[in-house]
Every structure is written in structure tokens, then in C-alpha cells.
Amino acid sequence: MKSVFDWTKELTGKKSHPSTFTEKDWGLWNSFMVHKVLSMDPNNVTIVNEVQQLPPQNFKEIYSIYREYIPKSNRWNKYIKSKTKQPNVELISHIQNYFECSSKVAKEYIILLDIKKISCILEGRGLDKKEIKKLLK
Q1: CB 18 within 8 A of CB 66
Q2: What is the domain partition of the chain in residue ranges?
């Protein structure tokens, strides 16, 4: 096994018995990512929703359930990635320090505040217009 995609191929195609894998193979298992990749197929959403309630450490049990309940097929499902542009890390740091909050809350402030307000905050923190423009790209 090399990646989570190899594990999903195993679950949807080969369906080998769990005892055929080495401890090294099981070391590459990531329950969260397996759930995520399998849920990209609309036909698997219900079973994934149920199985992901199991503790992620029960990887052999999770594998066995998926092996039994997911139909054998060689379908390719597009892996959905976020299209949301993440704010600049340095900008997050400035907003985080200004509001004295976590980086998660700082990201929310960046979304909520307009560019003029963010520019005023950055100017107040001693940044020049060139640096501000770079951060707001």
C-alpha cells in the first residue's frame, strides 16, 4: 500500500481479506481519508455516514465493513477539493494580534471585514501601502 487511494482501490476492487496486509500496510491506513474518498461516490454516502461513527483506531473493523457492503466496481470518483482561497498567513497573524484572538477567528474576521477596514488595521500596525497591497492579494 502506498496511499489512501490504494486502500480505496482495495475496498472497491480487489477486496482482499484483512489478514493479508502487513503491519506496515496498516500503518498507512487513515480512517478519516478513507471515509472522505469513499464518500465522493453518492452511492456510498449512507454506509460511510454509518461507518465513520466507529472509532478510527478500529481500522480492521472499518475495512471489513466497507469490504462487505461496498459493491465491487472500478468507478472513478472525482476527488473534490476546496475552491476557497485561503488568506495570507501573515495577514492572519496581523488580524489575530490586533483582535487578540485565535487564527480561526481571525480568518472569519478577514471574511467579514471589508478591504478598507483591514487596510486601516494594517496601517495602524505600521505597514506601508506596498506591504498592505501584497497582503491583500
Answers
A1: no
A2: 4-69, 89-135
Cα separation, 12 vs 15, in Å, equals 7
| DSSP helix/strand/coil, 70 | coil
Tell me the three state secondary structure of residue 134: helix
Contact 6, 39 (CB under 8 A): no
Rounded to 10 deg, the angle between the 103-112 and 89-99 helix axes is 100
pTM, to two decimals: 0.57
Measured CA to CA, the distance from residue 21 to residue 44 in angstroms comes to: 24
The candidate with the shortest Cα–Cα distance to 90, out of 77, 69, 68, 106, is 106
- Give the contacts of 124 (CB within 8 A, at least 6 positions apart): 98
Could you read off the pLDDT of 86-136 as tens digits, one per residue?
888 999 999 999 999 999 999 999 999 999 999 999 999 999 999 999 998
Cβ–Cβ < 8 Å for 51, 68:
no
- Grid coordinates given for 58: 478500529
